[in-house]
Amino acid sequence: MNWNSISFDWNQARAFLAAAEERSLSAAAEVLGVTQPTITRQIAALEKELRVVLFERTGRSVSLTPVGLSLLEHVRTMACGANLVSLAASGQAEAIEGLVRVSAADMTAAYLLPPILDRLKEIAPKLELEILAENKLSDLLLREADIALRHARPEQPDLFAKLICEDTARFYATAKYTENFGLPKLDDDPSHHQFVSFGDVEGMLGHLTSLGLTLTKQNFRYASQSQFVEWEIARHGHGIAIMTDRIAGKFPDFQPVLTEIDPFTIPTWLVAHRELQSSKRIRLVFDLIAESLSP
Fold this sequence. Notes:
Blueprint: H1 10-22, H2 25-32, H3 36-50, E1 55-58, E2 61-64, H4 66-90, H5 92-95, E3 98-104, H6 106-111, H7 117-123, E4 127-133, E5 147-150, E6 159-174, H8 175-181, E7 196-198, H9 201-209, E8 222-224, H10 227-235, E9 241-244, H11 245-248, E10 254-256, E11 264-273, H12 280-293
Parallel strand pairs: 3-4, 3-5, 7-8
Antiparallel strand pairs: 1-2, 5-11, 6-9, 6-10, 6-11
């Protein structure tokens, strides 16, 4: 750790984060319980220390500059860690109890969320967690879940969303598949290859043909609305599937194929109702997921 490189004050970073999320200096001051001049002074001090301009000010609102946007996720990660440290140090986390419901796609629910349970049990042993493994979007406004992991930012103003990671994804197949069908290449005749569709075959076909693959419905003999089922079909050697590198890395029998095609970028947004700001149990799980899944 290069301690000399850390020269700014956490309160300055916190003021920057609040202003970025609230898009207003006065709103940031309100959520932090300070005055607007204090927020303005802290942000100015941070900009001076880092030698950058973080915001463009237009009337009463503020918008991030490209530099500010590039720093935002790093500061959010700091905030998650600071919140967890504060709860653990004060002993508040051990007293937090009740149920938190988290909605996520089935592969995320099965392979990315369970590893956080050890840490959750250590920090808040009385907390209960229900993981909803579903590929539909839970309606947080109707309280179908408290927290959701989504691959698109929600548009509803009553929801709070945080981009926690952008995973790469690519085509994968097992050795069993390549032994039976050969190693697929972009310039080869793909007629004898099989792809497993996650969801609508027509939509998947349109997406893949736009990448330069000459495919027809005959290349999609198998499909499922469950990504878990799609992956199992591919794991048994029946086709090629798309998966994030983070999850595919847990399966040594898979190997990347069609590597001539650039990897896809899959964003993951952590979403909660605005109640997140006042519910300690939801905030704790939210921050823990963000910390665990951030790169």
